[in-house]
Amino acid sequence: MEQVCPLCNGLRDAGIKCKNCGAAMADGGMWSDYVGPYSPYELTAHVKQENGGQCTHYLHCPQCGNEAYAIIQSDFI
Ligand SMILES: [Zn+2]
Ligand SMILES: [Zn+2]
């Protein structure tokens, strides 16, 4: 068995609704894809977190533009 993030691997969507308008939040990819070049200290922290079975994802609302982050627990496949 392998521990993988279901969002990174397209196994399922985030299943998180926008707090502003209630639309389904769209997965914008891994946190590190966005903040990596600008925030090396944050990146290090989140890479460690990912190795511990969790993956931080950036989510955005396609309806109102709201942004959020979600900690996704990895699944065993
Ligand atoms: Zn992920
Ligand atoms: Zn929204």
Automatic annotation (TrEMBL):
This is Uncharacterized protein. It comes from Tumebacillus avium. The lineage of its organism: Bacteria, Bacillati, Bacillota, Bacilli, Bacillales.
